[in-house]
Write a structure and sequence with these properties.
By secondary structure, this protein is α/β, with parallel strands linked by helices. The chain folds into three domains: 3-67, Orthogonal Bundle (Arc Repressor Mutant, subunit A), CATH 1.10.10; 70-163 and 267-315, D-Maltodextrin-Binding Protein, domain 2 (3-Layer(aba) Sandwich), CATH 3.40.190.10; 164-265, 3-Layer(aba) Sandwich (D-Maltodextrin-Binding Protein, domain 2). The protein is built from twelve helices and 13 strands.
Length: 319
């Protein structure tokens, strides 16, 4: 079996799109189609079928995708092992991240990391917490920066590095602004929340369920920025990380509501599969994350290795 053809098939199987696979592989779309067709011809098995404009994996195609995942994960591990012997002059590091960190924390961190290790090839994938955990378990990423509260925590190794506070946000003209309200009052309001699988949604739902209170979900979105804009327009309330609100609160576009006895806290951690041995690049990245967090105490919360204090959320709460 031609490994190049298998790799092309694997990218198509992941994206279920010839055009997206061509972008990922940096080759033309016709070339992608040709390689997949050649693989099907050589194996004598139909792997992908097209119905209308959509692509679907056949049963053997889905099974082959699973084998391809294992093959290319092993290939990456072999490359990283050899890179360890050469030092940190080369190598690949794939980082997964949840949406909050991926939007507000990881881009600048990776920029700084690349300055220190310019010859390391680093990329990151972003999704919600549930997606990131799946990527770890399937060995699709070397490690992930995600919320510590994982469904399969026993299968993972973790290093906490950042405390986060979730808050209830409202538009500037909402009648709750300036009051101390109760959780029961939140149950009377429509909410714009993250999609299922999001940790912020899970934390909020857990606290409301503990009080026997329902949540009126008006809308579900994958984008934290889109949620903040809709909340700012007065469409409903939302849940957001305090780390993401400095600009909107300073401009008066959003207000943080004071809710009595309703503390939403979570902890971010560097997470990797417990059976995966970190290579030198992974260890260097882990150390860098702790150092970076410690150096940015004005913007970030407590780094476990630095033991610095968590930010005072009261500074951005409407009083």
């Amino acid at each position: 079996m031609n490994l190049h053809q298998l790799k092309v098939f694997y990218y198509v199987a992941q994206c279920l799109s010839f055009s997206k696979a061509s972008e990922e592989l940096h080759i033309s779309q016709p070339a992608v189609s040709v390689q997949v067709r050649k693989l099907e011809e050589e194996t004598g098995v139909e792997l992908i079928e097209q119905i209308g404009k959509k692509l679907y994996l056949t049963e053997p195609g889905a099974q082959l995708k699973g084998y391809a995942e294992e093959i290319f994960a092993a290939e990456r591990q072999a490359e990283n092992m050899l890179a360890d012997y050469r030092g940190l002059n080369t190598g690949e590091l794939i980082i997964g991240t949840s949406s909050t960190l991926g939007t507000y924390y990881v881009p600048q961190l990776l920029t700084e990391f690349r300055r220190h290790f310019p010859k390391l090839e680093v990329s990151f994938k972003m999704g919600n917490t549930e997606w990131a955990e799946e990527q770890i378990l399937k060995n699709q990423v070397d490690m992930a920066l995600v919320e510590r509260d994982l469904a399969h925590a026993s299968d993972c190794s973790m290093m906490p590095f950042l405390n986060d506070h979730l808050v209830v946000i409202a538009g500037p003209d909402h009648p709750f602004v300036g009051q101390e309200i109760t959780a029961a009052q939140l149950a009377t309001q429509p909410f714009i929340l993250r999609e299922p699988g999001s940790n912020s949604r899970k934390v909020f739902r857990t606290l409301m369920s503990q009080r026997g209170l329902p949540i009126q979900i008006l809308m579900e979105l994958e984008s934290p920025e889109a949620i903040k804009r809709l909340v700012s327009s007065g469409l409903g309330l939302g849940i957001a990380s305090a780390l993401t609100l400095e600009w909107e609160v300073a401009c008066g576009r959003l207000k943080v509501l004071r809710v009595a006895d309703f503390v939403m806290e979570r902890q971010f951690a560097i997470v990797w599969h417990k059976d995966k041995k970190p290579n030198r690049a992974s260890l260097a990245f882990t150390d860098f994350v702790c150092c970076y967090t410690s150096a940015h105490q004005d913007l970030l919360a407590d780094c476990e290795c630095a033991r610095s204090p968590a930010p005072d959320v009261r500074k951005i709460v409407q009083v």
